[in-house]
Known about the structure:
Elements: H1 2-28, H2 38-41, E1 50-58, E2 64-74, H3 87-92, H4 110-117, H5 119-122, H6 126-138, H7 143-152, H8 154-159
Antiparallel strand pairs: 1-2
Helix pairs in contact: 4-7
Amino acid sequence: MASSFTSGTLFLTVLTLAFAALYIQGTLGEMECGNLEHNNCAFAVSAAGKRCVLEKQVRRSGQEAYICRASEIEADPSVLRGYVETDHCITACGLDRESFGISSDSLIEVSFTQKLCSSPCYDYCPNIVDLYFSLAAGEGVFLPTLCVSQKEDLRRGMSEIKSSGLVAPGPIHPVKFLAAPAMAPSSI
C-alpha cells in the first residue's frame, strides 16, 4: 500500500512539474532573454537556443539594475529551447538564480563540483550539465572524468582545472563558441 502511494505521489509531482513548465513557456510565448525577470534569467535558454545571462548595471543615479540578455553561447539542441531552469535543478546543482554571467570558476570549488556531480543534478538536470560540460571542455577537462575522479580523489580531480577567469560575454562583445578544444595546441 505504501509503495503505491509513493509511486502515485511521484507521478502527480512529475505531472505537476510538466504542466508548470508548459504553462511558463505558454505564457512567455517565444521566450527571449530580454523579456525574463532577473530571478528567472540565469540558466535559462531562449527560444533561439541562446543561453541567458544576468548582468548588473549601475545607473548614473547609483541605482543598480539587473538586465537579462542573450549570450552567444548556444545550448545543446536536445535541451529545451525557450526553457527556464526549474527550482529543483537550481537547488540540486548548488546554483543561484542571481548568478552574473557564465564562468567556469565554480568548477574549482569543491562543494559546487560535488553537487554538480551528484545524482540529483547530473542525472536529472540536462540543461545545467550541458552548460558545465561545455565550460569544463573550455578548460581542457572532460566533465564525466572530473566527476569520476571527484568521487575517487577529490583533490586530484580539482587539480586538473585551472580557472582562466574568463566569463562569457553578453551581447555587447559577441563571441561564438562552436567547440572548445580538449587541450591547448602545442607550440612547435
